[in-house]
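PROTEIN SPECIFICATION:
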Amino acid sequence: MKQKKPNILFIMTDQLRGDCLGIAGHPDVKTPYLDTLAAKGVLFSNAYSACPSCIPARAALHTGMLPEHHRRVGYQDGIAWRYEHTLAGELSRAGYYTQCVGKMHVHPLRNYLGFHNVELHDGYLHYARYGSVPYRESQHVADDYYYWLKEQKGISADPMESGLDCNSWVARPFPYEEKYHPTNWVTDRSIDFLRRRDPDQPFFLMASYLRPHPPFDAPAYYFDLYKDKKLTPPYVGDWEDTKLLKERGRIFDSLTGPEDEELIRQAQIGYYACITHLDHQIGRLLMALTEHELQNDTMIFFTADHGEELCDHHHFRKSLPYQGSIHIPLIISGNPELTGFAPHSVCDEVTELCDIMPTLLDIAGADIPDRVDGKSLLAFADGEGREYLHGEHSYGELSNHYIVTKKDKFCWFSTSGTEHYFVLEEDPHELHDRIEDPACRERIAYLRNCLIRELTGRPEGFTDGTSLIAGREYPVYLAEK
């Protein structure tokens, strides 16, 4: 029976920087399978996460809405996910069998968001392990990987015995055999889905990997690839100070990277090791498509929820408006007649995670809900992109907004009022803040007015319509209008 709709393999990663691909020109990281995927499809060079931390970024992915509309403008566990439409729900209605393997990071943990089935591994979630969460909502009960690991190894459902934390820059190899690593588990279960699928029904398979999100614990083989290699040091601009680094640089679970240069190097080794391990496991999954004779009938998407500062500008983790945090990889590979992009092409239009949902629905021939903010990336092949993207993140003293275009970026920290301006086309690593440059004054004023326009009418009172107002209360979840 000839399928009328293409299968969709959606590969999601967590905390992978947009520049950490070989094909993106990274000087150190090796990603042969992802490079192959991009060479057969299109790489979006200006893909961003509008609210760069796990929960709000995934809300954009699953709803196709920008933060102001899905209402998650910061990181907060325990808020129920209730939306009129979801990506998997719409594809299910369009006739797809929908399966997720790996990370969801929703509430409650076993909320399927319209998927027919979920095999869950969310990583280490503090909220779901301690405190007053119900028994059924404890990760010890709800997480399928932990259950599987306990059955396989006879150990407690806790892979943290290596002494690493889920937000830490401390790194060391995985303490068990590689086949027990959660990255391998996601691949194994995804491949098993290909074996079990109904061959007469199109599928949407979301292989949702946790790494390279900490812990940086790739198998030893991958650490060995980088441990003796000279690595490019983190990017630190001529505009920043070390105040926060001196306060926090000796705390392993920190907003900053470490002060110690050797610990910085170890963090880089661990992060890059996780990326190449991930790449090789994605290679296994791509080869399984070939074994199942699905490579010609399947559209493949690859992206991440947000990036990782990895000691750039002395910072660590995400949630900030700098490139390490907000710039993400995005690849579409498959039938060029469906995408409009020739193989080995690069699209420099400004794209965002909310664009994924309308793109997939477009490929599936399904209707796109009216409340979706995103744009189908298939239209971007004809140059129908956006002028700029407004991003934001509630983050305490570091709460921020940004306006980013193909060539530059304006940042505003809403608590302090601090502003930055970077000319990305000349300075992609944000080494020079030109906010005081007279030659840029007119452009800065234009981008500032774009932000004012985006924030006008917001409940926080960030603007009076003519200027930005710092110091306003900024909740992580906006009340429904």
Remarks:
- The chain has one domain: 7-386.
- The mean pLDDT is 94.
